């Protein structure tokens, strides 16, 4: 079994000799074969938060001010107005006024001096109030005001509790983002990723974590001395599929992010990797080498029945579903170099997708509207590119030399990916046009394999 693994990984390196992604995964497999490590640890409840910094924003960022929300009780565990302000600034689409520069702090429309706000160049103003409820919760009320017309653009009352005030703030940010930019906000979503803490050549700890999109509320889902790869969210956001090597061989697990309950769903001889949920959450597209060669399979999660979609002698891997569930794209070197191909989930002919897009294109996934692919493209380095499916055009949107694992935000406006930074492997995010850029890093350790979760129900 170990020899099979070694040979397949050697083939993978030959297929993608210049690929940071594949080579790194194979090195992890070799460490599993050669080293004796401990099994997975019990589920942890906390994790190290990601530090987020804006490295580039749009020049036409909208000026906005978020005034502290009125509250008459004891200090709250979260500053809702500051969270909203940070969210909007982090998007790169807004220029939020620092609290110290606010000309006044109105909490009601009647208190707003519109002339003062026009003088300081504000376009929009957010005000709000928080009141306690009899059951120990809160009602959070906010209003988004157009400074030039004096009219309310949006306003809601949202019930909340102390444990989810931060999430309530993110929901308000989503509403503001949508009303001013026309695109649903993704501030209340979550990201999954893998952290690696290396203490020595054979002493590493891998943690599968989830966190809010702003890096807070990090939670460890799995901690292991064995490599953990390829986290993928279920469409309802309640489960993660991922690859673990805890049994010496790769296997695909499903884990409930709320309860921690997990089950092994794809395992056996050879490679079992790269899980991807179907849009209805009932199936996984995976890579298996049960017949001796890596191919794409579809696994029914209820019946556990497996359907093999590809039979080419080349390496077929990294499947992803289209939003309508009618197409699966995958990476294959059947044409001599790694490129993106497509196939029906029911099987049948496979067609190449990426032409005139460079000699190396891999790890593709669909935009939420199904019109684009995000992928890793090779040349002088490995960068993230967006491929237009209608026009067949590819646009490189990152500039580093080793970028991998791209994943769309559920609103399609941003892409998260892994890159090499000053601390090692970090996460980064970019808008689809490359104008807004962020870096997400840990104070200690490395972080990789990001997956942006769906909208919360």
Structure description:
The chain has 457 residues and is mainly beta. It has 2 domains: 2-36 and 189-452, TolB, C-terminal domain (Neuraminidase), CATH 2.120.10; 58-181, TolB, N-terminal domain (Rossmann fold, 3-Layer(aba) Sandwich). The chain is 14% helix and 41% strand. It has 5 helices and 30 strands. A 5-stranded antiparallel sheet has the order 1-29-28-27-26, with no helix packed on it. Helix 1 (2-15) runs antiparallel to helix 2 and helix 3 (80-90) crosses helix 5. The longest helix has 17 residues, at 165-181. It is globular, with a radius of gyration of 23 Å. The two termini are 43 Å apart. 47% of the residues are buried. The model is unreliable at 1-45 (pLDDT under 50).
